[in-house]
Each structure stands twice: as C-alpha cells, then as structure tokens.
Amino acid sequence: MDVAIVGAGIGGLAFARALELRSIRCTVYEQRNRYARSGLGLLLLPNGLAALDALGLGDEVRALSNPLDLAVIRTSAGVPLGQYRLQGHRGIARMDLMGPLQTAVPETVVRFEAPFEGLLGEAPLRARVGGVEVQPDLLVAADGSRSSVRSVVAPEWRLEPCPVSELVSVCVAPDLAALYDRTFLKSMATGERLAVGLVPGAFGKIVWFVQFDAREVGQVPTGSSAKREFVRQLVGHWADPIPELVERTDFTHTHLWVTPSPARPPAMVHGRVVLIGDAAHPFPTLTSQGANAALEDAVALARHLSEGPSIDEALAAFEAERRPRLEEIRVGGQALLDSFLSADSSSLLPLVDV
Ligand SMILES: Cc1cc2nc3c(=O)[nH]c(=O)nc-3n(C[C@H](O)[C@H](O)[C@H](O)COP(=O)(O)OP(=O)(O)OC[C@H]3O[C@@H](n4cnc5c(N)ncnc54)[C@H](O)[C@@H]3O)c2cc1C
Fold it and tell me: Structure pTM?
C-alpha cells in the first residue's frame, strides 16, 4: 500500500510515524518549508498522551513537557472559584511536541514546499502535489482546519466562524514556572467573555493565552508593542502573575488562534481520500482537544489499515470507530462555547472527560 499524506503538522506526522511502525509506505507533502516554525504551546491531555505512547514517543514527550496535577479556577481579581485534581495532563511548547514527531519520521518521507494542488481522478486516485502528479492507493488529508483537500472532497461544507479567539504566548520565566509548577491556572473576569490560562511547560517556559470574544475586543493589532498594549488593556490589571507575564513576554512570537465553531463535521472518508485532525473536525479552542484528537485519529487510522481486511473496509471501520467519539467532543465543545459566551466560569476547564 502506498499512502500520500497532505500536511506535516501534528496529525500528519503522527500518522506517518504510525505507518512507519507498521512498515506501510508513505510520503508526506507539506506546503511550508522545512524551517518554518508555527504555534506556541498546548495542553496535552490523557488521550493525546496515550496516542503518543502507542507511537513509542510518550516518554520522549513527557521529558519535554511539564506535568500538571491541579487546575485552579479564579476570578480576574484572584478570588478562587474552585480547584480540581488533574491526572495525565501536561503543558508543552508546540515545537517540543513537533520535534519528536519530526525526528520519528525518516527525513526522506517528508517533502517540504509541496502543497496539495488538486485531485486529478478518483478511480484510480490521482492527485497533484508540489507540481507533480502522484497515484497513491490512499490520500490522507491532515492539512489543518482550512484544509484544501476538504474543500475539494466536501465543497458544500463550510467552516463556521467562532466568536472566540485566543492569543497564545510563551514567556520564558523560570521563576514563575517554578512558582506555578504543576498548576494550570485559569482566570475569568466575572460577567465578561474574557479569560486567561496559564500552563507551566518544561524548561522554565510558561505557555499562556488570552481567550476573548473577538466581536467585543476588535481586531488584534500587528506588531509586538501594539500587541502588548492590546493585552495590557484587556488583562494587565488582573491578579498576579498576569501583569508580570504581560510585561515579560516577547510578543513578537505571539500566535493568534482564530478557531472555528463546532459545526457538525463532514464525512471523514470520501472514496480513497480520508480527512483526519483539524481537517476532519475543527474544534474550538476551549476544548483543548485539537492536537489530542488529531493524535488519536492518526493511531486509529493506521491500526485499521494494518488490520484490513481491505483498504475500503479499514476506512469504513475507522470512521465507524471515530465518529461517536468525535461527536462527543464536538457537543462538549459547543457546551463550553455556550457557557463562555454567557460569561459562565464553568467553561474554564478543558474537555477531558470524554
Ligand atoms: C499555526 C498554528 C498554531 C497553533 N497553535 C496552537 C497553540 O498554541 N495551542 C493549541 O492548543 N493549539 C494550537 N494550534 C492547533 C493545534 O495545533 C491543532 O488543533 C492540531 O495541531 C491539529 O493537528 P492537525 O495535524 O490536524 O493540523 P495542524 O497541526 O494545523 O497541521 C496542518 C499542516 O498542514 C499543512 N498544510 C495546510 N495546507 C496545506 C496544503 N494545501 N498542502 C500541504 N500542506 C498543507 C500546514 O502547513 C500544517 O503543517 C495551532 C495550529 C496552527 C496551524
């Protein structure tokens, strides 16, 4: 079997690794160049870690991330609203997750600067990527929430814009990281659609993010000093350590994450084209499930393909297994979004119990 994977993000690389472990041949086509870096940090949840364990990368990723065993929820003034024990959660810089995935896949398998350009035929499957025609047995689209492959195989499906956006930053602050250590701290302004999350990562890094209703706060400016001023106006007066984070963060590398609404996703399987990760099911930021569910998809699809009995039966079994689980996350994401938009602090925990 010969598999073409579009996108060398978290889902695409994880799937390539899973195929490598089963000696299934694949090529990954990625539009960016080899050195491009994007994204800042995320919460790894137990389901994502279990998938990394299945890929033989769990221990390496644990060594590059920070365990979190307590979630503290409070108001913007620092008044505690509750605390919850966490199990199997970790904070990680996105590049510290991408690193092990990238090195786990042989260099020759990934073609950079090779964007997906279109499908040329369905039986047999033919596609154009990076200026060349390929004829794989299967094409797996792991090209993110704005998937070009999805726009070809499910042209009627539209990404619903979500009012909630997230500005993600990383502050290298070993003193603060040591102070908050294993605590995921989330603050929300009472009666407002505005929250700040703080995730201590490894190596003295603090991943932190501001979640807001973009209809209320307007456009995030470009330029690091304008961004700092934007964040300062929003949350610079909140309880410690938020003012310090605002002043110490290098806003040059801040990432604005504009997430979609949890609309009912399209089918994952379209003949011999399969959508995985954000291409298949873009989740809103509040779930923290984007990377974790993409890892699960990758492991499940490789398992079904290696178990057969045929590619088409494997694809049907994959979709049947994943659909109910992804629907649970989507419905949970919708509830979190509704609660955030009604300024209710129960939206503050990530979606872990699905
Ligand atoms: C820039 C960025 C920053 C993010 N930052 C955070 C964050 O800080 N915290 C967090 O929790 N989540 C973040 N996310 C979301 C999270 O990383 C995703 O939910 C998760 O990675 C899903 O994995 P995926 O493989 O489906 O998509 P992605 O990891 O987004 O990977 C998609 C890949 O496909 C490539 N691609 C796109 N179009 C084409 C094409 N036409 N041809 C070839 N390749 C293509 C992209 O360049 C990318 O490498 C970020 C996503 C992105 C894209």
Answer: 0.91
